[in-house]
Amino acid sequence: MPEMSAPPHIDLVDPALYAHGDPFAQWRWLRANAPVHWQPPAELPGFWSLTRYDDVRTAYRDAETFSSAQGILLRPAEHGADPGGGRTLALTDPPRHRRLRALVDEWFAVRSIRALEPELREITRGVVDRALDRGNVDFVADVAARVPLYVICQMMGVPETDWERLYELTSQAFGGGDPLTRRFAHLEILGYFETLHAAKAADPGDDLVSVLATAEVDGERLSPDDVILNCDNLLVGGTENTRIAAAGGMLAFLERPGQWQALAADRDLLPSAVEEVLRWTSTATHIMRTAVRPVEIHGRTIEAGDKVVFWLPSANRDERVFDDPDVFDVRRQPNRHLALGFGEHFCLGSVLARVELRLLYGELLGREVRVEADGEPELLDSIVVNGPGRLPVALKRAG
């Protein structure tokens, strides 16, 4: 690939770039010219960017060099270390990561999700029914956000009477808006799990919170704080990326109606369509690691203690790996994207996310629901997750 002229300025941590700009132009240039790129410190600490598929995949696999325990997202230095560091599924390295994951792995295995599928289908059908009754909805808030949230609430043993309250809190905590509102909403979520943990520890049930509340790792019970942080981890991991992938996929279909028509004509394309939605949306914009020993990549030396950022949307559009990477194609084969991670930290809920997307799109297709744009989409101004923050649509029943 010929080198492109340098862009005027590389700044991948400007939130406005994702809402109003074109980060893919910067990633494309970096892949061609500077696949290991240093961004000096400013409001965020300095870090190395990896933008090529093979480099990201290799780093994902090397947990001995690239540690998760010091945080997996860029955050201002004044915020201090992530409180989940070394304690949660997402923020631990082997061997503790494997031991924590073993506690809940069975819940997310293929056979377990297959057994849950009738309940997941019922949840999905209920969400679509309510959206159809309204007609004009925000596909993000009224459809894409509710399916994965209700599902993970059910798996965690959250009473159905509390689902709407957690929906409101997660919308405030992890959406856009005032930082103070987001912080207080997140604190309320943690408080909710503190209460739920106490109830499940006293009277365990058949759910994920009960598993964590009664489990032992290395011969010791998890502390209440560790259980609460891991509940928060499961809630975020089980909702955010699926929500934005489902909505981002629908936006891609609205912009390319021929792809939706191809899917409607051949439902056997649903599995490959789901994989293409995951690749195309790559909703986790960045994942961070900390180097624990020096390593050289493409002639650049990364020192121990340096932050290293994997830009997943860039890796999943790498022209060295994907034919026509900037084309959305529900027939794409093969499709070995990294949207759900790789190696030790391959997404625990990857099977669940795929089933949720398949059931949601399948429900709309099976009922021949017409989905039409009903206003301009609004993209998130975030360096953490990328995609629609709002997607106004009109849903119309067949006939």
TrEMBL record:
Q: Name one Pfam family in it.
A: p450
Source domain of life is Bacteria
Coiled-coil intervals in this record? none
Classification via SUPFAM superfamilies: Cytochrome P450
> Which PANTHER family does the record cross-reference, listed alphabetically?
BIOTIN BIOSYNTHESIS CYTOCHROME P450 (PTHR46696:SF4), P450, PUTATIVE (EUROFUNG)-RELATED (PTHR46696)
Name the protein family: Belongs to the cytochrome P450 family.
Query: Which protein are we looking at?
Result: Cytochrome P450
Species of origin reads Nonomuraea maheshkhaliensis
